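A reminder from the course coordinator: this example appears on the midterm review sheet, so study it carefully.

Given structure:
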């Protein structure tokens, strides 16, 4: 029995060792064709393409080469700003939502046409802030948008309108996360901390609860990311 167990353990560790030795990383940078070396966001679309949001442009990678989309691209059909602050893919509609410092952009991957949402002076239902900080598509396939100076908004695709979600003190919305129970967690900075939005089975808001965040030696805690330990 001892001999058999020794053989089994030797085999397992031998296989593990071979797998560990075969692990290989490829390094890509601006010399490889990506528009900038600082990458903020990565998503994958239905065709398997990887999309990278950088400090200077949007990039699509097919496994071999990069295609860049920037505000100075020859085509007028492009992004309005190169600093990509948010990136979210809707697999149901095959659309890519792109947050920038100068507008929220929707890229239809069926046509590769860009649509830009900016503040409109005479439209109360337009997005009032051009600086986007976060985008999230919830389990009801609705789009939530966090801005730099105006708080959190919910997009109505049929009306193409944005409704403000009132959360006291939440002006700068950096993170939007949905947990396993369908609750949305909103991250800001400073004393306001974190808010939890509970929805009913139709997606209507039933409760908004706020939590203060205290970090030692940090006067204004900054929420970059929220994750759930499952």
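Designed residues:
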């Amino acid at each position: 029995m001892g001999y058999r167990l020794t053989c089994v353990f030797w085999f397992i560790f031998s296989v593990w060792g071979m797998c560990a030795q075969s692990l290989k990383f490829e390094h890509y940078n601006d010399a490889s064709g990506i528009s900038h070396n600082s990458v903020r966001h990565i998503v994958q679309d239905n065709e398997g393409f990887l999309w990278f949001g950088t400090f200077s442009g949007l990039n699509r990678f097919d496994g071999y080469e990069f295609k860049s989309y920037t505000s100075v691209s020859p085509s007028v059909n492009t992004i309005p700003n190169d600093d990509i602050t948010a990136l979210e893919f809707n697999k149901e509609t095959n659309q890519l939502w792109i947050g920038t410092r100068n507008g929220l952009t929707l890229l239809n991957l069926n046509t590769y046409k860009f649509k830009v949402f900016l503040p409109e002076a005479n439209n109360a239902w337009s997005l009032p802030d051009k600086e986007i900080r976060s985008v999230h598509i919830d389990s009801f396939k609705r789009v939530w948008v966090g801005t730099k100076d105006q708080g959190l908004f919910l997009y109505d695709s049929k009306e193409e309108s944005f409704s403000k979600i009132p959360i006291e003190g939440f002006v700068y919305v950096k993170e939007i996360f949905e947990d396993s129970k369908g609750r949305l967690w909103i991250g800001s900075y400073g004393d306001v901390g974190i808010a939890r939005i509970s929805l009913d089975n139709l997606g209507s808001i039933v409760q908004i609860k706020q939590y203060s965040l205290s970090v030692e030696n940090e006067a204004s805690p900054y929420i970059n990311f929220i994750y759930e330990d499952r």
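DSSP finds one helix and 16 strands in the chain. The domain at 38-211 is CATH 2.130.10.10 (Methylamine Dehydrogenase; Chain H).
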